[in-house]
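EI: anyone free to look at a 159-residue chain?
SC: sure, send it
EI:
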Amino acid sequence: MKIENNCVVRFHYSVAEPGQAPTESSFDREPMAVLVGKQQVIAGLEEAMMDREAGDRFQVTVEPDKAYGERREGQVQRLPKKYFGDRRMAPGDQVVLQTKFGPRAVTVMKVGMSVVDVDLNHPMAGKTLEFDVEIVQVREASKEELEHGHAHGEGGVEH
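SC: here you go
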């Protein structure tokens, strides 16, 4: 079965900036599972997976506009320290905050006594990314997965 919208794909990946070591990899754990066409991975990666099938392994370079977008200036925000719990932080740390729009990755810029300055740009914004991808499984999505908008089972969401 070839990858197309509304199918479930389980895959391994590693991602790196050009000429650098991978910053993240799933090759040492369970493969990731996504419901294709639901923006669960960056656009450039999903586009590169289309029409491939289980067993395919490939590399793809994704430019910022198809990844996490360009960096935007003026995206520093000062937040009360209480939003970070008891976590010890230092400038450069990447933290995921729970917002009313869901989780958001931010970078700590400055830590004060009662406030923390964070950069709201995604940590990978403005970066060209190189992926190494191995497609493990491609299958039709169940009716329930289509209704819920995400993959269930191994590598997906457990209810």
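EI: The chain has a mean pLDDT of 93.
SC: 👍
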